[in-house]
């Protein structure tokens, strides 16, 4: 569709104005200050009255000031507080009054939302006096291009949208709602342009205590900082929002949505399996591994110790570069005080090679008990572990003909509920950042069905952890665990915590143990693993 000019609202390039002193003064004031521009020329669309002058509020002025003075801004505002409109005003100000061409992107998790941002900009642009604005060369649903080459473009928050672009200003709207499997790749793609001078403003309401937006928020609030300047506000800073409004809204949308959308609470406000409040606590306990092997595929927090009980749980993939074959190694020496001690993750290891790896790591960790998901490739792995490697501590349910656990709707529902309980009740400590990252995206996709959504999303480490929790709740382990602990001289949790003669089993000391570099000097690691 051809661009139609009217030289009042949408003006053609290179128009000459008959400048007066008043016009020059007004143009100079607008060019110098986004705040002045907003207070005197911004408009909004009222659902009844139509286009009206914008009543700019104090918190909107704080946001404009922050964008003027900080390269990176992160904004947490309630719903319908005008955060997106404020950012749109600032974007238009940059495009109109920069002394050189700028390249601006407005991105949201849905294309319609970014187009609405662009439409807000168009409404303000069209209401400006002609002498305060540049002429345009392109003016369509996704792009405004001005006469000096400056561009404002809208789109969805995907890596391909900005890859290879030189960006002056990047506006990310409702960033907390970008799916986990997209947001990390997008943010990685954005780093080159941001690190070379590009500016960024991220605006959103919370969406649970997980994900990149939450991590950025935590970093911005921390004493150390992360380069983002945080701008937030209270829900009742918006006019006419009082206790009556609060009570009415809670009745309409519920307390959880109220806390998320108005009080900006990150706790428990998403549909993750593990409650947001506990994900937040878990995030504070992440620890770098003390050693890495196999090119970083095998990460270790605690070396195998004599007289300890270990559980190895495995989730199997094809090994063709897509899904990962994973192992979780859990210290199960003390009942109810389980601990992640090592993790293996590789998406190129073939099933037959993975069988060897399971055997090697299991032997290394005191002939750990092993549970393998036996669907598809896992079926043969269980056979080979039992028959070829003669691995005795391999799980087989009472009455079952085959070793391993079969993944189906029932077993997954049971095991995910076990994992939720273990993690939320602090029966199981997790230290691995990759496992934690998957837990952040492990959401309810159907009633009582949990997975990481998206083609590029992975939940392989979580599923290995799921099978570990399943194993601990089987009758098989319940019949064995006391026998195994008795062999080690551990008769009860109480004796472990109060023992003065055998410090090896003092759980308080174990919890305080420093994460020192792993020493495998007493094990021929090179022979076992080829490290």
| Spatial gap, N to C terminus | 64 Å
Second CATH tier, the architecture of the largest domain? 2-Layer Sandwich
Instruction: Classify the fold: give the CATH topology of the largest domain.
Output: Nucleotidyltransferase, domain 5
Low-confidence stretches: 492-531
- With helices defined by DSSP (H or I, 4 residues minimum), what is the helix count? 20
Identify the strand order in the major beta sheet.
5-6-7-4-8-9-3-10
**Nearest-integer average pLDDT:** 86
User: In percent, how helical is the residue content?
Assistant: 25-40%
Query: Helices and strands: which structural class?
Result: alpha/beta
Radius of gyration: 29 Å
Assembly context of the chains: single chain
The total strand number stands at 19
CATH class of the largest domain reads Alpha Beta
Question: How much of the residues is beta strand, in percent?
Answer: 15-25%
Give an account of the 3D structure.
This protein is α/β, with parallel strands linked by helices and 531 residues long. The protein has 2 domains: 21-240, Rossmann fold, CATH 3.40.50; 282-513, Nucleotidyltransferase, domain 5 (2-Layer Sandwich), CATH 3.30.420. The chain is 40% helix and 17% strand. The protein has 20 helices and 19 strands. It has helices at 21-32, 34-41, 58-69, 83-97, 111-127, 159-162, 180-195, 212-221, 243-253, 255-261, 276-283, 351-364, 377-387, 409-424, 433-440, 460-472, 475-487, 493-498, 507-512, 525-529; strands at residues 43-46, 50-53, 72-76, 103-108, 136-139, 143-146, 151-156, 169-173, 199-204, 229-232, 291-293, 298-300, 310-315, 325-331, 338-346, 369-372, 428-429, 442-446, 449-452. Strands 5-6-7-4-8-9-3-10 form an 8-stranded mixed sheet, with helices on both faces. Strands 11, 12, 13, 14, 15, 16 and 17 form a 7-stranded mixed sheet that branches. A two-stranded antiparallel sheet has the order 1-2. Helix 3 (58-69) packs across helix 4 (83-97) and helix 9 (243-253) packs across helix 10 (255-261). The radius of gyration is 29 Å and the shape is elongated. The N and C termini lie far apart (64 Å). 40% of the residues are buried. Mean pLDDT is 86; it is low at 492-531.
